Task: structure prediction
Amino acid sequence: AWPQARETLARLVELTGAPAARVEHLHRLASLLAGPLDDVEAAITTLERSVELDPHHVPSLTLLKDILSEREDWAGAQRSLEVLLDLTDDRVERSRLLSDLSVVHDVAYRDSSRAEELLRTALELDPNLASAHHQWGVCAALEGDFAIARDQLELATRLEAQTADTVTTRLARHLGRRISLEGAESFGLGATQTALARDLGTVREVV
Result:
């Protein structure tokens, strides 16, 4: 059924003359390609066509940002994030985008100072944004400030109602290369996060 849906949407794209409608079809096609059909390269190409037709199409920009971030194409993700930031005045949405942008600066550029600056702005807009507290914890840990890291990670865990094992999975890519199990133990994590210290010892298997 999915291949047939792909063919149908591709035909609609080619047959539709109205640019706005074509953009919508391209976005739907890209969502199908990135999801059930698992053809990420085709999804990126399709989204680039959509954004070329409408540089302000938020759904296409958002999906493109997510895909490029997943592929660690940080330059492309940054471009999409910056355009999205220009397009919204919503405080909560801007907070989320700034949090995402901080990941780019931390992971791609190893610029923890800029990442923390973006996170401060994000949390001014939405103090309860769990992803911002989570990322701040990552930045603090990478800088060796385990007390702040502990506080931020515990707060992120409470806000998201996550188990420590889930937090570990999200942190593995960021912390695994640069923090040993001994370093993680110095967090002094509470009972709900004992699994985080335990699992960091096996991070290299996850990365």
Remarks:
- The CA atoms of residues 176 and 205 lie 9 Å apart.
- The longest helix spans residues 91-107.
- Residues 162-168, 172-207 have pLDDT under 50 and may be disordered.
